Amino acid sequence: MTNLSTKKIWQALESIKDPEIPVVSVVEMGIVREVIVTDDSVRVTMTPTFSGCPALEVMRREIETAVRQLGIANVTVETVLHPPWSTDWITDEASEKLRQFGLAPPQKHGGDLISVAFLDVAECPRCGSKNTSIKNSFGPTLCRMIYYCHDCQDAFEQFKPL
Q1: pTM of the model as a whole
Q2: What is the pLDDT of residue 116?
Protein backbone atom coordinates (compact mmCIF):
# COMPACT_ATOMS: atom_id res chain seq x y z
CA MET A 1 0.00 0.00 0.00
CA THR A 2 1.22 3.49 -0.71
CA ASN A 3 2.00 5.70 2.24
CA LEU A 4 -1.10 7.88 2.32
CA SER A 5 -2.28 9.99 5.19
CA THR A 6 -5.81 9.94 6.50
CA LYS A 7 -6.00 13.60 5.46
CA LYS A 8 -5.39 12.69 1.78
CA ILE A 9 -8.17 10.11 1.92
CA TRP A 10 -10.59 12.63 3.45
CA GLN A 11 -9.64 15.06 0.66
CA ALA A 12 -10.42 12.41 -1.95
CA LEU A 13 -13.77 11.71 -0.30
CA GLU A 14 -14.60 15.44 -0.43
CA SER A 15 -14.82 15.08 -4.22
CA ILE A 16 -17.74 12.62 -3.98
CA LYS A 17 -20.96 14.52 -4.42
CA ASP A 18 -24.21 13.54 -2.77
CA PRO A 19 -26.07 11.70 -5.57
CA GLU A 20 -29.32 13.55 -4.84
CA ILE A 21 -27.83 16.99 -4.11
CA PRO A 22 -24.77 17.42 -6.33
CA VAL A 23 -23.68 20.75 -4.82
CA VAL A 24 -22.50 19.11 -1.58
CA SER A 25 -20.16 16.23 -0.86
CA VAL A 26 -20.88 13.14 1.20
CA VAL A 27 -18.32 14.47 3.68
CA GLU A 28 -20.04 17.87 3.96
CA MET A 29 -23.36 16.11 4.51
CA GLY A 30 -21.87 14.14 7.41
CA ILE A 31 -22.47 10.82 5.66
CA VAL A 32 -18.81 9.77 5.85
CA ARG A 33 -18.18 9.28 9.55
CA GLU A 34 -14.71 7.76 9.89
CA VAL A 35 -11.61 6.79 7.95
CA ILE A 36 -9.26 4.22 9.45
CA VAL A 37 -5.92 3.51 7.78
CA THR A 38 -3.94 0.39 8.68
CA ASP A 39 -0.76 -1.02 7.17
CA ASP A 40 -2.51 -2.68 4.25
CA SER A 41 -6.08 -1.39 4.15
CA VAL A 42 -8.51 1.47 4.56
CA ARG A 43 -11.91 1.26 6.19
CA VAL A 44 -14.45 4.01 5.62
CA THR A 45 -17.54 4.17 7.80
CA MET A 46 -20.63 5.85 6.42
CA THR A 47 -24.11 6.55 7.76
CA PRO A 48 -26.75 7.24 5.10
CA THR A 49 -29.37 9.90 5.66
CA PHE A 50 -31.98 7.11 5.76
CA SER A 51 -31.42 3.37 6.20
CA GLY A 52 -33.34 2.75 2.98
CA CYS A 53 -31.55 5.50 1.06
CA PRO A 54 -31.84 4.71 -2.65
CA ALA A 55 -28.38 6.18 -3.27
CA LEU A 56 -26.65 3.98 -0.68
CA GLU A 57 -24.96 1.63 -3.16
CA VAL A 58 -23.93 4.51 -5.43
CA MET A 59 -22.24 6.27 -2.50
CA ARG A 60 -20.59 3.06 -1.32
CA ARG A 61 -19.21 2.36 -4.79
CA GLU A 62 -17.97 5.93 -5.30
CA ILE A 63 -16.26 5.96 -1.89
CA GLU A 64 -14.52 2.67 -2.65
CA THR A 65 -13.47 3.89 -6.11
CA ALA A 66 -12.09 7.19 -4.77
CA VAL A 67 -9.94 5.41 -2.20
CA ARG A 68 -8.76 2.77 -4.70
CA GLN A 69 -7.70 5.56 -7.08
CA LEU A 70 -5.22 6.61 -4.41
CA GLY A 71 -3.46 3.26 -4.89
CA ILE A 72 -5.10 1.37 -2.05
CA ALA A 73 -6.27 -2.11 -3.04
CA ASN A 74 -7.88 -3.27 0.20
CA VAL A 75 -10.84 -0.92 0.83
CA THR A 76 -13.84 -1.62 3.01
CA VAL A 77 -16.85 0.67 3.13
CA GLU A 78 -18.99 -0.10 6.15
CA THR A 79 -22.52 1.19 6.62
CA VAL A 80 -23.36 2.02 10.21
CA LEU A 81 -26.93 2.90 11.18
CA HIS A 82 -26.34 3.72 14.85
CA PRO A 83 -26.32 6.44 15.77
CA PRO A 84 -28.72 7.40 13.00
CA TRP A 85 -27.68 10.20 10.70
CA SER A 86 -28.62 13.67 11.90
CA THR A 87 -29.01 16.92 10.00
CA ASP A 88 -26.78 18.40 12.72
CA TRP A 89 -23.92 16.59 10.96
CA ILE A 90 -24.31 18.84 7.89
CA THR A 91 -21.44 21.32 7.88
CA ASP A 92 -22.10 25.05 7.92
CA GLU A 93 -20.48 25.27 4.48
CA ALA A 94 -22.86 22.62 3.14
CA SER A 95 -25.84 24.47 4.64
CA GLU A 96 -24.85 27.57 2.71
CA LYS A 97 -24.39 25.52 -0.49
CA LEU A 98 -27.87 24.02 0.03
CA ARG A 99 -29.33 27.51 0.43
CA GLN A 100 -27.61 28.72 -2.75
CA PHE A 101 -28.94 25.62 -4.52
CA GLY A 102 -32.47 26.67 -3.52
CA LEU A 103 -32.98 24.14 -0.73
CA ALA A 104 -33.57 25.53 2.76
CA PRO A 105 -31.17 23.83 5.16
CA PRO A 106 -32.48 22.47 8.44
CA GLN A 107 -31.89 24.30 11.69
CA LYS A 108 -29.36 22.82 14.11
CA HIS A 109 -31.26 21.14 16.92
CA GLY A 110 -28.76 19.35 19.14
CA GLY A 111 -31.14 16.42 19.48
CA ASP A 112 -34.16 18.52 20.50
CA LEU A 113 -36.30 17.72 17.47
CA ILE A 114 -39.58 18.69 19.14
CA SER A 115 -38.66 22.38 19.16
CA VAL A 116 -37.72 22.50 15.46
CA ALA A 117 -39.58 19.76 13.62
CA PHE A 118 -42.63 21.10 11.83
CA LEU A 119 -43.00 23.97 14.31
CA ASP A 120 -40.55 26.58 13.09
CA VAL A 121 -41.04 28.52 9.92
CA ALA A 122 -38.52 27.80 7.21
CA GLU A 123 -36.46 30.68 5.85
CA CYS A 124 -36.85 31.10 2.11
CA PRO A 125 -33.51 30.26 0.45
CA ARG A 126 -34.24 32.72 -2.36
CA CYS A 127 -35.23 35.93 -0.57
CA GLY A 128 -34.50 35.18 3.12
CA SER A 129 -38.08 35.80 4.23
CA LYS A 130 -39.60 33.92 7.14
CA ASN A 131 -43.08 34.71 5.86
CA THR A 132 -43.42 31.10 4.73
CA SER A 133 -45.78 28.23 5.29
CA ILE A 134 -45.54 24.50 4.88
CA LYS A 135 -47.50 23.16 1.94
CA ASN A 136 -46.58 19.50 2.20
CA SER A 137 -44.56 17.68 4.85
CA PHE A 138 -43.64 15.08 2.22
CA GLY A 139 -41.42 16.37 -0.55
CA PRO A 140 -39.81 14.57 -3.48
CA THR A 141 -37.62 12.60 -1.06
CA LEU A 142 -38.21 11.40 2.50
CA CYS A 143 -35.86 14.04 3.89
CA ARG A 144 -37.58 17.12 2.43
CA MET A 145 -40.72 19.21 2.95
CA ILE A 146 -42.33 21.71 0.58
CA TYR A 147 -42.83 25.31 1.69
CA TYR A 148 -44.25 28.42 0.07
CA CYS A 149 -42.81 31.93 0.49
CA HIS A 150 -45.52 34.57 0.69
CA ASP A 151 -43.06 37.38 -0.07
CA CYS A 152 -41.32 36.19 -3.24
CA GLN A 153 -44.23 33.86 -4.04
CA ASP A 154 -42.02 30.89 -4.76
CA ALA A 155 -42.22 27.31 -3.56
CA PHE A 156 -39.11 25.71 -2.11
CA GLU A 157 -37.99 22.60 -0.34
CA GLN A 158 -36.54 22.41 3.14
CA PHE A 159 -34.44 19.60 4.51
CA LYS A 160 -36.34 18.01 7.39
CA PRO A 161 -34.52 18.32 10.70
CA LEU A 162 -33.57 14.80 11.68
Answers
A1: 0.84
A2: 59
